[in-house]
Amino acid sequence: MTEVESAFALLAEPVQRQLYRMGWRELRQIQVDAIRAYLGSEEDALLITAETAAGKTEAAFLPVLSKAAAARPGSVRALYIGPLKALINDQMRRVEELCGYLELPVHRWHGDVAQSQKAALVAAPDGVVLITPESLESLLINRTRQLGTLFSRLQAVVIDELHAFLGSERGLHLASLLVRLRRYHEQPSRGFRMLGLSATIGDVEVARRFLMPDAPERVKVIKQGSSEGKVVQLRLHAYEVSKEQDATETDEEDEDDSEAFSMRRSAMGRLSADLVAHCDRKSALVFVNSKADLEMYADLCNEHCKQSGLPENFLVHHGSLAREHREDTEARMKGTPGLTTFCSSTLEMGIDIGNVSMVGQIGAPFSVASLKQRMGRSGRRDGEPRRLRMYVLVPKLEPNSSALERLPVELLRAVASVELMLSGWVEPPTPASTDLSTLVHQVISSIAECASLSALELYQRLCIEGPFRQIEKSLFSRVLRCLGAKDVVEQSPSGGLILGLEGERIRASKEFYAAFLGKVEVAVLYQGNKVGTLPIDILPQPGEFLMLAGKRWSVVEADFAHSAVQVVPARRRRRAKFAGSVADIHYRVHERMREILEEDSMPVYLASEAQRMLVEARKLAREAGLGQRRLVKVGEGSTLVLPWCGSKAQRTLATAFKMQGWTVIEHSVGLEVTAELSDVRSALRSLADRTLASEALAEHIQPKACRKFDELLDDELLDVGIAHDGLDYGSACEVARMLLIHPLYL
DNA sequence: GACCTGCTGCGGGGTG
User: Fold this and answer.
1) Is any atom of strand B within 7 angstroms of residue A147's beta carbon?
2) Could you tell me if A492 and A498 are in contact, meaning their C-beta atoms sit under 8 angstroms apart?
3) What is the pTM of this model?
4) Please, which positions of strand B sit below 7 A from a protein CB?
5) Nucleotide of closest approach to A87 (CA, C1')
6) What is the pLDDT of residue A51?
7) What is the pLDDT of residues A239-258, one digit of tens each?
8) From the C1' of B2, which residue's alpha carbon is nearest?
9) Domain boundaries of chain A, sorted by first residue
10) Do A449 and A267 form a contact (C-beta atoms < 8 A)?
11) Considering only residues 469-498 of protein chain A, which place a Cβ less than 7 A from any atom of strand B?
């Protein structure tokens, strides 16, 4: 018997029959490995990592369903946890199909599922449940009495798109929920088995610790062989942005308040014209870093098609669109080949939109991990390559600006990201060690679940058994005292902790269930139909223009009482404003950018204009010593610091300099400090020998409250969190030491 | 200079 045959033989008979019916002629290697690992042992957890469309879902569910088939009803047997409702809806169909010959019901449980369906599951717990972390949270506090029957014999928990949880508030939240859920198992010490699925694991050890915190070595890693990977076709195009060209090319439709935008307008036009040619009759996804730009590119491309007599084949998909519009875009992509969708991260994960033969990325990607995910959306069919085209706008080098300002940073970052992705590297997730906001969330939720808990029990559940293990007892009691002072918790006469008035109010709100902070948004309505949403704090006024859902609008009425803005179609091409912040770049990306400046070889995937710009940038860097020198004196009383150390450590350095009373200009790579070189060196020394403490730096960070429940904590507690997770103190100290011993500092 | 995610329970009134 071959390896494949013996793995197949391990599956339950109805599962085997269903595979025959579905026309499967073989199992993929990761499926064989997963079946053997899951059905061959009773305890180990599984981490299944393979490229998109390699059959990870089936690798997990074939063995999980086979085992579940033999268990008796009366309890949910397997739980699937997904990060998106849309993904759960897609996976529901796939799991139901695999269950074709099994007598196992498959249930969805998320915010869009009818109460009646939820009630049906609670009345007869059985089968497989597909759920979001937030709905699991709601089960724990709203259905406490039923948990014992629902999950008493739960066998397996499958976490899809595991990378989306690792290192985030939502991941910490989920980790806490899973520990709390285990208490309802009839054998809590054995509990259920964990399976994690992902295409983009930056650090296997972090993933292992997430799946089995007490025994990470018992997580079996099932990895797709590298030979099974796909051929990659790459091209990177660059467009120069210059003032002179735009003065002649902007027309009345393009009036915009921002000068920065009008400068970019003609380059965006050239980029769009190329894009229309590149996407010609291909199904494509084009990722854009901002929603305002995304709408602009869709409009420019459709306009281009209209003028050339081509069909207007460009659609949009992002988080500020009405759900109906997003579902319509998904359905059209699936049903009609040859369409292109401009999207944000909404389509980064596995929502089914049919086959995509090309992926575009406008602007340098936020991270290498995100670039990898995005590229994985193309070439899903066997034998088809992955095609990726990147497009970067590069400001024209102004002769009178400084050498640092003239560096084409975004082009360098795009090249560095591609190089790192091709080398197989992606950013490792960095879980927070001291996320007190999520701790507060779980304190409130745990008390709501149990009605009353002693402080010690609470500490035991969350910080000994649960995921908040780095939080010591003294810090935990400071948090509780703070919550007590704000009426969130109070001590009952019997000594247990119960929710106070404020705590009850927070817990009763429908916003409570997520651990992350949601934006306050208002609906944009046209003739009573929802087009999308805009952030409430920068809402357009009547008479102003905006683009949304691939159309141009003007605002006729802003109705705050009903949280709505009424719009009508308009001619003007004006961008809507969405709220935003700045991304953190990993130090390895900065380091690779510097190496690219220093190297001579030309990446083969650069188009000619991009090649010319890289040659120019290398010449500039060499003349100014930007790639080699770390501390550069620039005129009297001003020093350039070039650590190439990633944004978090660079921000930590900048804070240390600001504490000296100096003015610090923070560039994306490098700092300009109003201080003499010798003074900069002595400030670096106090970091290098750690006489400047992390807590002292944290005091100077503003704003302090940025996570969801930070408002319930005092500044002192927030500083503890910032010192641990908001800054990168360890790296900054290392970088300071390196800057001091670097031979080429002048 | 950014992107994304998620979400009760219950009471009252109407209909078949």
Assistant:
1) no
2) yes
3) 0.94
4) 1-9
5) B5
6) 82
7) 999 865 544 444 555 555 55
8) A580
9) 3-223, 232-423, 436-508, 521-569, 628-741
10) no
11) none
